[in-house]
C-alpha cells in the first residue's frame, strides 16, 4: 500500500530576519524620499544597520527594493483609509484626517519611481494601488452622500492634489517645507466642502484619466 508523502511547510522567517527586512524598507523609504531611487544600496544598508549581504538576501536588485518600498507606503496609506472608514462620526472630518495622513507618507516623492524604475504593472503594485484607490473612493462617496463633499470632484482630483501639495518645489529641501504642507492641504480641503462656491472647469478627474494623461 502506498503512503502519502507528507507535505512540508515552508519555514517561517525568523523574527530577527523580519525585523531586518522592515529596517531595510524603512531606511530605503527615507533615503529614496531624500535622495531619489538611485541612492547606493550600501548606503541603505548602513542606515538600516545591516550588512550589504542582508540587503541583497532580501532584495536581489534595486527594482525589488523600490517596489517593496512603494507597496509598503501604499499599504500604510490603505490602512489609514480603513481607519478613517471605521470612524462613525463626521464623514468629511474622517476624509480630512486621511488626507493629512496620506501626505505624511510621502507618497508624492515616491510616485516618480513607479514610472521610472520598474514595471508599473507588476502584480504586487497593481494590487496595492487598487486597494488604496477603492478605499479612498469609499471615503469620498460617504462624504458626498452626507452632503459634505462637493459632487464635482473625483478620486483623481484628490490624489493628484495631495501629491502636488506634499511635494516640495524644485530646489527646496524635502523636509524643510513640512511645516507648510498641512496648512496648504487644509486650504485645499476647505475648497472641497459642499456646498460648492464655484463651478469647476472640466469634469471630475478619475485615476484612469491621470494614468492616460
Automatic annotation (TrEMBL):
Keywords: DNA-binding, Transcription, Transcription regulation
Residue ranges of every copy of the HTH tetR-type domain listed in the record: 18-77
Lineage: Bacteria, Bacillati, Actinomycetota, Actinomycetes, Kitasatosporales
UniProt protein name: TetR family transcriptional regulator
InterPro entries: Homeodomain-like_sf (IPR009057), HTH-type_TetR-like_transc_reg (IPR050109), HTH_TetR (IPR001647), Tet_transcr_reg_TetR-rel_C_sf (IPR036271), TetR_SbtR-like_C (IPR049445)
SUPFAM superfamilies in UniProt: Homeodomain-like (SSF46689), Tetracyclin repressor-like, C-terminal domain (SSF48498)
DNA-binding region: 40-59
PANTHER family: HTH-TYPE TRANSCRIPTIONAL REGULATOR BETI (PTHR30055:SF234), HTH-TYPE TRANSCRIPTIONAL REGULATOR RUTR (PTHR30055)
GO molecular function, a single term: DNA-binding transcription factor activity
Source organism of the structure: Streptomyces resistomycificus
Superkingdom of this protein's organism: Bacteria
PROSITE patterns membership: HTH_TETR_2
Amino acid at each position: 500500500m502506498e503512503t502519502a508523502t507528507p507535505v512540508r511547510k515552508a519555514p517561517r522567517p525568523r523574527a530577527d530576519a523580519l525585523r531586518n527586512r522592515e529596517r531595510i524598507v524603512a531606511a530605503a523609504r527615507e533615503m529614496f524620499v531624500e535622495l531619489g531611487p538611485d541612492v547606493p544600496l550600501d548606503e541603505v544598508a548602513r542606515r538600516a544597520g545591516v550588512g550589504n549581504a542582508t540587503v541583497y538576501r532580501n532584495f536581489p536588485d534595486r527594482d525589488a527594493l523600490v517596489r517593496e518600498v512603494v507597496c509598503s507606503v501604499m499599504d500604510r496609506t490603505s490602512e489609514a483609509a480603513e481607519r478613517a472608514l471605521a470612524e462613525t462620526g463626521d464623514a468629511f472630518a474622517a476624509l480630512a484626517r486621511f488626507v493629512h495622513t496620506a501626505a505624511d507618507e510621502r507618497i508624492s516623492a515616491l510616485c516618480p519611481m513607479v514610472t521610472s524604475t520598474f514595471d508599473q504593472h507588476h502584480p504586487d503594485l497593481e494590487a496595492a494601488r487598487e486597494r488604496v484607490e477603492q478605499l479612498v473612493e469609499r471615503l469620498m462617496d460617504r462624504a458626498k452622500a452626507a452632503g459634505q463633499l462637493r459632487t464635482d470632484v473625483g478620486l483623481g482630483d484628490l490624489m493628484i492634489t495631495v501629491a502636488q501639495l506634499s511635494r516640495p518645489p524644485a530646489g527646496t529641501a524635502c523636509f524643510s517645507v513640512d511645516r507648510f504642507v498641512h496648512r496648504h492641504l487644509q486650504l485645499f480641503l476647505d475648497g472641497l466642502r459642499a456646498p460648492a462656491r464655484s463651478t469647476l472647469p472640466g469634469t471630475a478627474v478619475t485615476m484612469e484619466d491621470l494614468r492616460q494623461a
